[in-house]
Amino acid sequence: MNLKKTATLVCISALSVLATVRVTTTTTDLKCLVEKIGGDKVEVTSLVRPLQDAHYLDATPGMVMRISRSDLFVENGFELEMGWVPEVLRETRNRDVRRGGKGHVNASRGIQAIQVPDSPSRDQGDVHPSGNPHYTLEPVVTQQAARNIADGLIRVDEANAAFYLANLDAYIEESNALVEKWQEKFSELEGTGVIKFHSHFDYMLKKLGLRIVDAIEPLPGLAPSAGHVARLISRYDENSVGVVIMEPWHDERVARQVAEGIGVELLVLDPAVGASEDTPCILALFEHNAHRVYRALGGE
Ligand SMILES: [Zn+2]
């Protein structure tokens, strides 16, 4: 046996196992998910900060540099990042992380989007032309994103496939148990009406059996007129609506006007992982928001 050759092979194989997979994600929700599946094998950076609205970012040279140095790039999909990710991907010289490359993950692949419009109103400013992209607020539908991420990690780091798959199984089990727990708690509140600002929490609200009766935005991404706000206040009362919810980056003054006009509480929920110290990862994000809605509706 050629000892020198054997030693070299051992050395290469040790390196391939020990190297950390460098991952860039668009959102902090996806960052947390990659960390759950990748554990200590990955080093993850998110391009969007927790309190930034991922619909409205501009591509920057820093983003291009970041994904150019990555082994894997994970985007949310359903056109959440349509205003900036295509440009970042065009600019990078790293072909692997471009769409279709082995280092690219569209986390939404295989997920059935809710609220797919019959005729997208892009020209009117609709930012959900492919349906609602905010699935990561609901951990069970996010299991498919976790699978897509595990597949991506295995493509670039096959040596640790068993590790990634075991973590995926653990996430599926943990998320099923958490969501079932909250569905049980919310069963007494089934069908309670909610008014939302943007459609950010719809996957979560639907999973919990709540009824989204209306939105402060007339279309996703479109600011409400005074007439629209007045119509909401005259159409609903505290019998038809239990709570008004919003994301921190929208106009709280308008949402407060609607909530006070109807006579219910306004909740500013955590929109993403890391938005507060209560939401360090994706399951905590769901639990924190579900708990706040539950309490606002009279649960303990
Ligand atoms: Zn949106």
Automatic annotation (TrEMBL):
Residues 99-131 are annotated as: Disordered. Residues 1-19 form the signal peptide. Pfam families: ZnuA. It comes from the Bacteria. Gene3D superfamilies: Nitrogenase molybdenum iron protein domain (3.40.50.1980). GO terms for molecular function: metal ion binding. Keywords: Coiled coil, Signal. GO terms for biological process: metal ion transport. Residues 165-192 form a coiled coil. InterPro entries: Bact_metal-bind_prot9 (IPR050492), ZnuA-like (IPR006127). This is ABC transporter periplasmic metal binding protein component. It comes from Chitinivibrio alkaliphilus ACht1.
